[in-house]
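quick one before i forget lol
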Amino acid sequence: MKKLLFLQVFFMSVLFILCANGKADTNKSILDLKDFKICLIGKDKDEILNNIVQVLSEEIEKRTHITLKNTSEFLPDGNCILITNIDSLSSIYEKHLISFTIEKLQQLKPEGFAIFNEDVQGKNRIWIIGKDNRGVLFGVGKLLRIMKYSKNSLKIEIPINIIEAPISPIRGHQLGYRAKANSYDAWNIEKYDQYIRELTFFGVNSIENIPFQDDQPAPLMPVSRREMNRAMSEICKKYGLDYWVWTPADFDLNDKEKRENMLKKHEELYKDCPVITGVFFPGGDPGDNPPELVLPFLEDLSKLLTPIHPNAKIWLSLQGFTTAQAEFVFDYIRNKRPQWMGGLCEGPSSPPIAYLRQKLPVEYKLRMYPDITHNKLCQYPVPWWDIAFSSVIGREGINPRPVQYAYIHNWFQPYCDGFITYSDGIHDDVNKIIWSAMGWDPKQKVRDILIEYSNVFFDSAIAEKAAEGILALENNWRGSIIDNGAIEGTLKQWQELEQEGHLEQNNWRWQMCLVRAYYDTYIRRKVIYEQELEEMANQILRKAEEIGAEKAMEEAMNILNRTVTKPIAKDLKEKIIQLYDALFNSIGLQSSVEKYKASGGERGASLDYIDIPLNNRWWLEDQFQQIRQLDSEGEKIKRLNIIAHWEKPGYGSFYDDVGNTAKSPHIKRCEIRYTNPAEEAWQEPTLWWFDNGKTRKRIAWLSSLEYGEAQYQGLEPNAQYILRITGLGKPQIMIDGQKINNPDEKGIELGEFKDYVVPSESIQDREIIVKWTLPVEDLKKNWRQQSRICELWLLKQ
């Protein structure tokens, strides 16, 4: 109630002054800021505040070519942007007439700010008043997000009445300088400084680095890791931010020599860095040490950390821990109440966040470590992602997913004290901004955040259109790529924006959105074309008995090879290549292993997969070679007939490529989630990555379900049916609740058929429900070796 009363009184006081000057109006008007000065009030020797003023001045000049003069003198007779914090403001309150009282502003929460305008005797002022230096920084960021820019023009809508403070105290992102990243490893110190600065526009107060882990060669690094570790700490000090480090032990902590070497690395890091706020030790992923070894190691780290950085804390995640190991940690915390511990982090493969919150004593904080960087084989996959996108874009392709990640953030936010996200590159920039903004205020609308994003990073003239374009990019990945005709519309949106010509060519955020629009459309057209070619080839194979096996295979292969001899959309492909080259030069995004030194194919190297088949051309080519080795024409024709009818088993029979959103009509699934994102309403398909992404396996075997349910209706009660599967291992199958597996049966290999007779009593009601789960013995296996189903047939005999 006190806060509400304060807000009411505050706004009424501002409104009263506006009315007194004849400016009160329900309609917005435009204030020209071109001739304003920036005035830092109070502590002109405060380095952080001066840096913040520099941020405002430089960022305005970049967008408008206007240089606003800076001053440390209060200018009662001039138009100015007044910047201060509450402590500095008190020293000038009695000297200058202003429209608020110190007592009211004192009620601002930490890191909060007030921004408003006033007209005093015809002179306009815009106030940015922070509760503290961070409040000033975030107030400047907010102002940058709402001003209107064009060349030689700087304006803002008035009246401005903004009072804000963040909901979550920890709001940050991991920007690890390591070879595995798909862009950060190419950055110099200036690029890190600029990107960290831009993240603060949306309220980021924490940056996490990876100082040691990942020792693979890094050919693109302009400076040593030690130098960058120190530089990132200095950048955080410059802006008054928290600096965290992620430091796993991916070795056996029983190894005394390696343990001692790691302690020495930590001590060197602590001495190098002017600021360290948090040391995050993941319990797993990577690492496989039990808590009995982990906790003593963290105690030893604290003895090195605390003398150098007295306020720094050590944080632990329980990733990969069993329930017994998690309980061991909680017993330790409850009994010892370690002063060096800041709290726990919840991340991929951690125990449920509600369990962590319930078990953790209230004096310790709980921080999320969400994966916002990966698209598949990850914590939060793209729901039922089309296998074509999965095959060419991979885990770390450019992935704006604003609506999904806003939902995920808001589901978990009440449990935790904030987040520092897991990111391995610049490709997830939109996702970072969404998490940052939602961590500040979860009630914000996604579209509004994207408009501010587009305004400050693109151009005010196209802010709303670009925001719609980003939302459209997320929708490109919903459902079947062939059935999603909106993909073509998304490209048209971005092409129209491109033709308006508002942006400089080296704007990497713009380049990322643009290349995604072109890439998505190119892949869609390629899928349509190549699948049509495969169907034409299958039609030829169905004539094998008439024209002969060899001629059928030769003609079919000629048709399939048209994708090479008569490629489509060459203009789109060329544009994609140009944009990826521009992205490497502008921000170091590595879209190719060979060309741009990406650390691996799945690390965003989507340019390397632009030409892979999106039908079964490679698999068919191999099959034809095998068929040619058969002894008789009859055997050859039989095999060709199986291939030709693979996905079309005939009237009264059914086929499902169970993990393919476009070809699984009988599989029960939930593509849009309205439930706990950590607990799938229905199993998501696993989208596999074989042979470094250039596998010659049948496309249906690149996705699977380890658990699942299929429903078949319209069956004939008097017919006999066979249930056929492809997959791996021994999935436990039930038909209408009745197990049909033989416990002693041999498991299948990928590509083999396994047939089961459907009990006749199950089809008397003309429908069956097929469910499958993992066998008990698979529960202890690595997930890559667990049983799964790739394809299902219900074959009428």
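fyi Residues 1-25 have pLDDT under 50 and may be disordered.
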